[in-house]
Known about the structure:
Layout: H1 2-21, H2 28-62, E1 70-77, E2 80-85, E3 106-109, E4 111-115, E5 120-126, E6 131-135, E7 139-144, E8 150-154, E9 160-166, E10 179-184, H3 186-197, H4 203-209, H5 216-245, E11 275-276, E12 281-282, H6 285-293, H7 295-298, H8 312-323
Parallel strand pairs: 1-5, 4-10
Antiparallel strand pairs: 1-2, 2-3, 5-8, 6-7, 6-9, 9-10, 11-12
Helix pairs in contact: 4-5, 5-8, 6-8
Bound molecules: dinuclear copper ion (CUA).
The site of dinuclear copper ion has 9 residues, from loops.
Amino acid sequence: MVIGATIIWLVVVGLTLYAVFTERTFRPEQVRRVIIGGGALFPTIVLTGLLAYGLSMMPSLQSPAPEGSLRIDISAVRWWWRVSYHPLSTSVNPSSDTDQPDAIAFELANELVLPVDEPVEFKLSSEDVIHSFWIPAIGGKVDAIPGRITRLKLQPQRLGTYRGVCAEYCGEAHSQMSFIVKVVSREDFNRWFEHQKRPASLQVVQRSASPSTESIEDATQQASTQQASTQRDSLEFEGYQTFKRLGCGACHAIRGTDAISRVAPDLTHVGGRASLGAGWLPNDEDGFTRWLRETKKIKPGVEMPQFDALTPSELQSLATFLESLQ
Ligand code: CUA
């Protein structure tokens, strides 16, 4: 397609330059032939061919993936992507057009991890306006429409990290509604999947929840690493307290804690993701601090309140805590 487009572009530019610089005069009949042939017939034939080619690919993109394939529900929200993985044992059921809610293994946001060379079926929906799910390097794009389910089947061919975007204007932060797609080997995928399924493994959370249940072994092990990480631990603990005090759990979930709301992105393993703010900020403590302090500036229109009244130490502890959610 690129080669064809380049040839056509060169021919058109060549003819334009020729027309501008030539001294020759043309007979009306010659002019008519160029206009009808090059201006009407040629584009009609080429565009009809391309349309047929494009349409011929659609059934395979929208057909159900084979039984046992990976299934992922994508729900578009202004302005982020809710990503829900089904348990690996649940196979694709081609007749599941009724879209009954079925088991979800875990939920994350703005990030997809896919095994290479395997078909994956996406079930797309929207929680507010029309969005469009597109991973330019792998395929797409299919609209996510409120009140309707659309489907897309893809099979990533190459390992790597790709960027996905929202391809339908959906309001203020439309251009900041990206996501990261990591295509990995089956083994890496399984390892990642098992890790995502687990609740947040937070020492601070466990300790504050049940200080008496620590085994002696745990306590000894902790004591040896304690010195180096005491400061960090106490920051994480403070951060967790701040998270609770500010009521972040009213919108966010961290599996393994009291925070279970699904209004905003699930934060169970947020520190291990590639980006913050839907593909917008680097995922590190500085990124978290900036996001919390300048939410509205970084992403105008975002629903999350801006926590710019927090003291620098509160911000730092919260950022340390969130980053520790690996
Ligand atoms: Cu969502 Cu544009």
